[in-house]
Each structure stands twice: as C-alpha cells, then as structure tokens.
Protein 1
Amino acid sequence: MPNQTAHAYDAQATVTPDRFGRIMADYLEQSARATADLPGHTDVVYDRPSGQLLDVWGVGDTPHPTFFVVHGGYWRALSRQHTAFMAALLAERGIATVAIDYGLAPATTLPEIVRQVRAAYAFVRLRGHDLGINTERVVVGGSSAGAHLAAMTMVGGRWAHDAGLDGRTATEGLLISGLYDLRPLVDAPANAWLNLTEDTASEVSPALAPPPSRASTVVVARAANEAAGFSAQSDDLHSHWSPSLTCRSMTVPDRDHFDVFLDLADPTSSLSASLAALIESTDVRTES
C-alpha cells in the first residue's frame, strides 16, 4: 500500500528529469520576460509576523481586476519569481497579477503556510486598492500545491472573520492539478517534509472544509498526463463541490502536471480562456 500511495502522488515521476528541469527554468525565464516592462509594485510585505512578500504586476491608472496566483512546488520549492509568466498577457487584457511567496516546508508547517496564503488574500482584499487592484474583482488560482492553497482561500470557516473579511472568502478560482484531501500524504514520501498527522492533514484539506459560497464559480483543471492521485482528487473535488456552487471540471490535452501551468501565458489556450471567463464573472457579480 505505501508503494501504491507513493506512485499515485509522485507528480515528478510523470516526466523525465531533464524535462522537469527545463520546465522549472521556463517558469523563471518566462516570468522575468513577462514582467520586465510592466508597471507594478515589488517586495510588498503582506504579513508582518512572517515577513512574506508579494509582487503586483500590470496595474494602471484605474483599479484593475486581478489574478491572485499561488506557486506550486509540493509546498517546499519555487517562489513568486517563478509564477508571473502570465502577467504580460493579463496586462494586455486590463488584468493585474499578484504573485505571492510563502514559507516553505519543512521549515514552515503546512498549517502556517495556509495561514500565510490566507493572510496574503486578506491583504489584497483589504489594502489592494492602494496597489491599483479592484478589490472586489479578485480571482484566485494556482497549480499543484498552489491550487491547494488557493482552494484554502475559498472554503468557509472562522479564518475569514479572523482575517477581517467579515466571512467573505474568495468566490472565483482556477485550480490546476491540485491536491485537496491531504490525508493520503501522511503515508506518502512527501510527509518527510510535510510532517502531517491525520489531524493536521484534515485541518488543511479544502475537500473536508465547509465548501465555498453558493455564489462561487470554480474551474477544477488538470493535465491529461497526471499522477493517478492528482487526477482522482480533481474528480473528487469537482463531485464534492458541484452540488453547492458553479464548479466546472476540465482536462487539458497534451499537457503534463508541470507544463499545463504555462498555458496561462498562451492567449489561445483553454486555461487562458477559463481565467478570462472567471474575471468576467467577477464583473457580473459586482454589478448584480
């Protein structure tokens, strides 16, 4: 059973080491190119206790709708500098990009990582207007671990009151290749750096939390080539949330767990179209 669990949740095993390295380099290089000529705000401290930072790209003279994007890396790698490759395309469409950092495992526990990402979302909603953000039109999203963390800003619970949001969680989300019930990771190799117990895994599992509000719209996306655990959890989250809110399932052909995220920089991709539709849905919501 442990070997089966390890295989089901080993995303990196679905690509060769060379391909994995090239895609990680592409994240960084494409992000640098995308932001080179964009107006924005960098190194903004969003959470004083941890000192964690965010960048805002593609703002203008009026407050812009915004994509709040969270990087993956199995909660232990990568950064906001790897996660802005979509910023130039979004800026052309009048959309800002917020890319955030968070403390990495094992030095930072997963409950604390979740707290930090929620603090970043609250910061954007409460103080984003000063950074050129339309704080009522924020779509959250991310890939892999980033999808899990973005989902944690959408689910209900005491946190949204404690953060000063009057209980208002994120209502639009693009969740790509994520894990949403972390209990299987207790028996997977990833627990070497996550140090989860059954209790803490349950605590940070969006699939086990109160679902997003009925007004929410979510796209649960995955690549055609995913490890079995990632595919199954995307299906399970879609099934779990669909009765309560607008939740669409999406499989991106000819993509793997890692390169699918880069589709957000391609104006012709289905992921890019899905993000545009989510941004548009925030406009409808604010006008209603």
Protein 2
Amino acid sequence: MTKNSMRLDHVVLWVTDPVAAARFHADVVGLEPVRLTEFIEGKVPFPSVRVNEETLLDLAPRTFVDHMKMLPGAADSAGHPVNHVCLSLPAEAFDALRARLEHHGVPLSDIGHDSFGARGNAPRTFYFRDPDGNVFEARHYDD
C-alpha cells in the first residue's frame, strides 16, 4: 500500500462515557487507547482507540451533536450508529478476543461461517456490542 492509496483512516462512534468506552475497547477488545490521558485532563475533545497503525476508532461523546455542523442535517445523524464495524484478526487473536468477551460477560452471537468481506470469505465470524450499543463483527481469514 502506498501513501497515495485510499484506505480507512477512522470511524467515529457515539458513546455516552468516552473514558468507559476507551477502557472497554482497551481491556476487553484489546485496542490501544490514544489520547485518553489528554481527554481526561480536558486537553482534547475525545479519545480514540487504535485498530492498527493506520486506523482509529474515535470515541465521540453524544454531547458533540451540537458540533455536527459540517453538512446540513449532520446533527440529525448523531446517536444513530452504523450497522456494524468489522474487525479482522488472526485466528489466534480471534479466539482470544472471544474468550475475553466471554470472561467479561459480553453477550456474543453464535459463530458464523463463510462470510464475505474485504479479503474474501472468512471461515469464522461473530458479533458483539460495546457498552454504548455499537455493534462489532470479529472475523478471521485463513492467511
């Protein structure tokens, strides 16, 4: 991938408590918090968690609805989460994530099979929700 190719930079999730959301995504999902200390200190407007070296999930407080003025009607979408965000992991990390979620009592879907995605068909997938109701899919590919 080159610096000039298109890729996903970030997804903004609406959350009620950004600190609690960051801790869930760090402790349970296994994502690295970004700017959490700065958010707690009031230096930045929201924290994030890192999915990989190129992609973040921004954890925007629902109170930001008043700041959604970049396009007409943008504020109307505040609080309406996307259908789901899919995280692709190696098979061992997929199993470890499922075990951590179970350990923390997070409700999980059954394992699905042969689901199509960006890299073809994934042999196993499952779904879960974060504490704010955002839906996540976890999957792994054979390679």
Protein 3
Amino acid sequence: MLGPAALLALALAGCGAGSGLTVPTEGANQPFPQNFRAELLAFYKTYLTNPVGVREAALAEPVLRKVGGRPRYVACVRYNARQSDGRLRGLQEQAVVFVDGRLDRAVDDTEELCGGVSYAPFADLEKLTR
C-alpha cells in the first residue's frame, strides 16, 4: 500500500506529463557565428589603441551563454595590448557577444560569462598591424 506522500507524488507527476506546456525560449535559435575569428580581428584592430605588438593573446571559442536573460554565443578573449606610448597595459579579458551570428559587443565584466572556458593561443591577434 502506498503512503500519502507517495500518492501525492504520483498525482503531481501525472499532472505535468504530456501537458504540452513549454517555457518560451526567445532567441534560442541563435546561429553559430561562422566568421567569429575574422570579426574579432576586425573589431580589435579598431578597438585597440595600438593593435601592433599584442602579447599573450588567447581565445575561447564561442559557447552559448545567457546574456540579459537571452541565449547568445559568447567568445572570451585574453590579451596584453600596448598603450599609445608603447608600454604593455597588462593582461585583459573580454567577453565578446554575438547576436544572430554577428559580433554585437564586448563586455569587460567577464566573471560569469567566461567562467570555466578553455583558452587556446590566438596568434592572429598578435599579428595585427595598423
């Protein structure tokens, strides 16, 4: 014989089965950014004060993350860029957000977006010219 707790659990389990209720996932069909490397290079060529001589460049390829409550592809980039006087600024990290397969923006607050990613060398960023 089933106890009251077991009967309640069975009754509640039956309520949700096959109900067809789903949570809307706006933007869930985000396309993977096919040209993310080229877009990143074009972005950093204009974003960096001095794109020549970047050191320690690393890239974590795009993964789906929640950004503003919506799924977006995010690529994480680390680099040590030169300042306008030629001195290295220090290691920086940015989360680059892609919307509809295109680069949308770079975010400096990377703790949540870049946590647990695996970086690989991003040699093309170190080869930028003016």
Protein 4
Amino acid sequence: MQIRIQGLSKSFGQNQVIKPLDMVIESSRLTTLLGPSGCGKTTLLRMIAGLERPDQGQIFFDDVCVFSEEKGINLPPEKRGLGFVFQDFALWPHMTIFENVAFGLRATKNTTRLEERVHKALASVQLEKMADRYPHQLSGGQQQRVSFARAIVIEPACILFDEPLSALDAILREQMRVELRALIDRLQITAIFVTHDQTEAMSISDKIAVMSQGLVQQYDSPENIYQAPVNQTVANFVGTSNWIDDHHLFRPEQAQLVGQANDQHFQAKVISSEFLGQNYLVHLEYQGQEWSVYSPIRLNHDQVIDLYLAPQHITQV
C-alpha cells in the first residue's frame, strides 16, 4: 500500500507541530520518521493512523482518500486497515499469548479461520510453541514479538511502529532490529517506523524522513542522508560530522593518516583516544572544532597529527 500525504498540517494551540507537508510513502518498503523529541514524528504517525485529526490536507491509501478536511472525510482508525506496534507491549496479562494475538480478530468479529491465522502469525515471529503461555512467562524480546504477531494477524496493508524497541536493552534491541527487518521483507508489507535513534533508523530503513521543527528536512535513502545531507540540521543529527568550515564536512571514517596525491592536508591536535577493539576512535581539536577520526594505533594526548582527505570525501552543505 502506498501512502500519499498532501498539504498535511497540525497545530496544538499556537504551536504548529506539523507544517504543510507533502510526502509519498512507498509500498512494501520500511520508511522511518527520524528526529528528536518534539519534532512532530509521532504526531505525523498518529494522523496517518487516524488517532489525531489534521488541521488541513489529505491522506490517501493507494487511491482511497482516508482524510480530507476540505471534503469532510475522516475514516476512523479501525477502518483504515492498519496494524499497530507501540513502545509498551500493551499485552493483556490475564490472557494467553494465543488470546492476545487473537484479540483484534475477535474484537472486529473477523473470526474466519481464527486458529489457523493466529498460529501462522505466531510462527512468523517464531513463537508458535508459546501460544499457551502468559506474557509474564516471556522475555522482553518475546513479548515484543507477540505485539508484532498481533499487528500482522489482521493482515494489514501497513504496520505502524511507534518507537517499539526503546524499552529493550541494547543487545536485545539490536537483535530485534534484525528480526523486524526480516519480518517486513518476508511479508512484503508497507511499514512506517518512528524513532529518535539514528543507528536504528540507518540499519533497518529503505527510506528515512529526517524531521525537525515540524518539517521533513530530508527524505531519502539512508546512504544518501549519510553521504549527502542537504543541510546542517541533517548532517548534525545523522552520524558524526567533522566540520572544516560552515559549509564543508567529512565523516570520521573518511580521514586517513597517510595521504595520496591530490588529498587535502590538515594538522590537528589529539584530545583523547578510545579503544574500540579493532581500532581507536580519536578525538581531535582543529581550529576550535572538535573532530573524530579512526586510527589503527593509539595516539597520545596533545600529539599533533597529519590528516588527509580525498576531495570526494568532503561534503558541501
């Protein structure tokens, strides 16, 4: 399902949370809304879901208009055919895993082949053998998988994820990122994922909308957002940016300690070195700016080093 947004806006009192926005979310792809708290990403997700009413604009699911202020159309959430996965797992503690997953089907009286569909959904998240257990008998990662199964059992055209991994510890969060991405690929379903975690966004997304102050600053592939940020807001929020001046930057992995012909040459002073296992992350001072680069060896505090950058590795914004 393709989601098309035209001229969408939303204010709370005098605060315009979403400024007029046009956007197309591609079918069978995972699109992430990325940005800091208060940037409008969750409000945008809630408007797509029908949980928040926009002030102006239109929302189309394929060719079907689900919201239009001008035409007086506002399809309720339960009729939009969407699956939801939230930060808190929101599982019923007194129900078995089977009944938790079946809840949406029973609530909408969509009970044809219910047992088959629930077991298929549980199998898709590798929990088919835990159908008779209760939420408190599962780990955090398993509970999150139950919420995934509950979202897909209704066979939605799109699943909305609102920071679903933020309640998990770091190791489990990384594991669940892999599983979530594999699930989306397997189902070939449209997904919209909200997060403030840039690593999370870069690792799972087909496209990312970087949001700030109610605007989409850049909407592109993870690679393009990292390698060719359109402005300072995007460059500073996604990845580590080493600023040469107000309009030129490079990324830590692009600097070399040994130069080639035509490389630009810089000298910088070492602030500190952090051992990362395979290499060191070195913090430098260059003309009042703090830079970060990688080195195969530890560099000493106050040591002055030579850095080299190929011209194609210097990004202008």
